[in-house]
Design a protein that fits this description.
This protein has six helices and seven strands; from the N terminus they run E-H-E-H-E-H-E-H-E-E-H-H-E.
C-alpha cells in the first residue's frame, strides 16, 4: 500500500486520517512549459524522503493521518476534467470531519473543486496565491483553461489574490478592487500578511499556483514569472 511520505498504513486509512489528498495529474491547457501532469507522482515520491518530525511545532503531524483518496484521470477535454474534479470534490466533502486537499496538475484543476466547495459552503473566501490573475472569461476556446482558473470564483465568491505580477489588460476589469495584493506592493509593505487576512472571512478555500513563488525557489512551473513570494 502506497502512503503519503511512507507513513505507516495505520495512519493512512480513511477512518484514521484527518487529511484526504486527491491527485489530478492534468496538463491539458498549459500553454508554455509542460510536465504538470507529472507533479503528483513526483510529489508523492519525494515525500518519502522527508523527515516526519516538525521542529517548529515539536510534533509529528503525520500522526493525524493522511489518506490518499485516489486520482482524477479524466483528460478527454478541459470541460470533462473540470466536471470530474467537481464530482470527486463533492464526494470528498461528504466527510465533513476531514480536511480535503487537491494536488495538480496545472491550475485549471481548481475550477471544478472551487465550484463544488462553493455549493456546499456559504460565505466562501477563495484565497489565491499566484503569479497571474487567471481572470480570463475564456482562453483558447475554453472556460476551463488555466488562464480562467478563478474567473468563476470571482463572480460568485469573495476572491483575495496574493503575489500577482502578471496579467492581460483585459483582465484588469475583473480584478477585485482592494483585494488584489500585487507583488510589487507586497515588497514594500511589511504588514501585507495582516492586510491580506483582513480581507478573508467565512469559510476559506486556498488555491496555490506554484508560480506564486520566486522561480529561483520553485523553477519547475509552466509559466514562471520574475519575482514572487519567498
Amino acid at each position: 500500500m502506497k502512503t503519503y511520505a511512507g507513513i505507516p498504513e495505520e495512519n493512512a486509512t480513511l477512518e484514521n486520517s484527518k487529511v484526504m489528498l486527491v491527485t489530478v495529474p492534468y496538463d491539458g491547457t498549459s500553454t508554455w512549459g509542460k510536465g504538470a501532469d507529472k507533479g503528483p507522482e513526483l510529489f508523492l515520491d519525494a515525500s518519502e524522503n522527508m523527515e516526519l518530525y516538525d521542529i517548529e511545532t515539536a510534533t509529528e503531524p503525520y500522526l493525524e493521518g493522511v489518506y490518499l483518496a485516489g486520482e482524477v484521470t479524466e483528460d478527454s477535454s478541459p470541460e470533462a476534467m473540470t466536471e470530474a474534479v467537481y464530482q470527486k470534490t463533492k464526494e470528498m466533502l461528504q466527510h465533513e470531519d476531514k480536511l480535503f486537499t487537491l494536488f495538480g496538475g496545472e491550475h485549471s484543476v481548481s475550477i471544478g473543486s472551487i465550484r463544488a466547495v462553493g455549493e456546499k459552503y456559504e460565505n466562501l473566501t477563495v484565497l489565491q496565491l499566484d503569479a497571474h490573475t487567471d481572470l480570463r472569461p475564456e482562453f483558447h476556446g475554453s472556460t476551463s483553461n488555466h488562464a480562467c482558473a478563478v474567473f468563476e470564483a470571482n463572480q460568485k465568491h469573495n476572491l483575495v489574490q496574493v503575489g500577482i505580477r502578471s496579467c492581460d489588460v483585459e483582465e484588469m476589469q475583473y480584478v477585485p478592487k482592494g483585494q488584489c495584493f500585487w507583488a510589487h506592493e507586497i515588497a514594500e509593505n511589511p504588514n501585507w500578511i495582516e492586510d491580506v487576512l483582513s480581507k478573508v472571512s467565512g469559510n476559506v478555500y486556498i488555491t496555490i499556483d506554484l508560480d506564486a513563488f520566486d522561480p529561483s525557489i520553485a523553477p519547475s512551473t509552466g509559466t514562471p514569472e520574475p519575482g514572487g513570494l519567498a
